[in-house]
Records
---
Amino acid sequence: MSGALRAAALREAHKFLTRAGQKRSQSRRTVLVVSEAALPDLQRTIGYVVADVSGRVVGRVECLMYGRRPDVPDALAVRSGFLSRRRRLVPAEAIERIDGASGIVGLRVDRETIRPFL
């Protein structure tokens, strides 16, 4: 990700995460709290930017990871780093909100707490 794109993504993530107290309607495609009922809808998040609780970019959603049940994803595989060489496993429980309008997945944890894999 180039410096200008990364800066733009950081600004968008910060604006998105600092608007948490505002009421948003479902028609604007924003989900404030992700429940288990919304987890199957995570398929649309592939390619979204993932930002931690501080607004720092973690990476982009690469794919969904399934485990306990084949129809409900347990985690997101997020690629980051130069040429997207690093992957992190973001548990579905760590997702706080999804903003479909800006393409950002907001987490409720810091990026240092997210485990790297592969």
Note: Helices lie at 3-18.
---
Amino acid sequence: MLVLSRKANQTILVGQDIEITVVSVKGGQVRIGIRAPQHVAVLRGELLEEVRSSTSESRVAGRSQTPVLHELARELRGSKRSLGASASRRQ
């Protein structure tokens, strides 16, 4: 794992297509902005872990995974819309 120190408004580039910007640092919380092509999934780690856990529980219980996956897809679509809206407000 690469560990970098950054201050507010500084960026990190990942490849040619992904830019991570430190938006602000307040107390113990860091706000970051991520610019990435639409085909790149950007997920919070805890959300992905929750989906994996639910999927495992569904398999054990013999339930379909489809509802969990549909819920994740809805959340991702909502996140992209809100990111687009906030990005357009800043410009």
Note: The chain has a mean pLDDT of 77.
